Amino acid sequence: MNEIEGKVALVTGGSRGIGAAVALRLAQDGADVALTYERNTERADAVVDKIKGIGRRALAIQADSADTGAVTAAVDETAATFGRLDILVNNAGVFLVGSLEELGAEDIDRTLAVNVRAPFVAAQAAARHMTDGGRIISIGSNVAERTVFPGFALYAMSKTALIGMTKGLARDLGPRGITANVVHPGPTDTDANPADGPNAETFQSFTALNRYATPDEVAATVAHLSGDSGAYITGASINVDGGWTV
């Protein structure tokens, strides 16, 4: 039996990229999976169909992570539909970069709403449903620890905030046996940042392995943290970045 057989997971932003890979890996490992998406119903439905093809239950929930009510509702709907919630993966995010002078108040507000406030609100809501052994995993970024390009101040700030949030959650929820961790991917081959894109050679040159990750490599770490093998890991920041920070 897989480590998370019969568990229920919610992956925010699970219709593409790392989020889709995480949703599929958790399903392969035995979980029923709900995912949120903002606009692209077709993509979300495609992931749901793949999960059902694995033999697990699946649910797609349209939710803008900038809307706290929608975030809480997605958590509650997952628990109501499947009868429980064991794993929350905070993956949804926005990537707004630009010079310090160009970034406006709307850019700041949306970045913090989606990348910081939404994971916190989702964790609050999830904690109300989770029993002992629950897992909260947030997807951070390699730039939280090493920002090598100009224009990343806002994004790096938002992802660095997840480190503090994770440590606080670990302390608050530890007595209940619920763990909280943050995974920092490095350059990862997705449609938003393809390994054959115009800047890919520069990005991968900052890694020790001189290559992009696949989404499945990031998902593998999330799966480990989600299962029994990750039960004694909490409050940790784990780099899956090919040596970006070394």
From TrEMBL:
The keyword Ubl conjugation does not apply. The keyword Lyase does not apply. It comes from the Bacteria. Keywords: Oxidoreductase. Pfam families: adh_short_C2 (PF13561). Belongs to the short-chain dehydrogenases/reductases (SDR) family. This is SDR family oxidoreductase. It comes from Actinomadura miaoliensis.
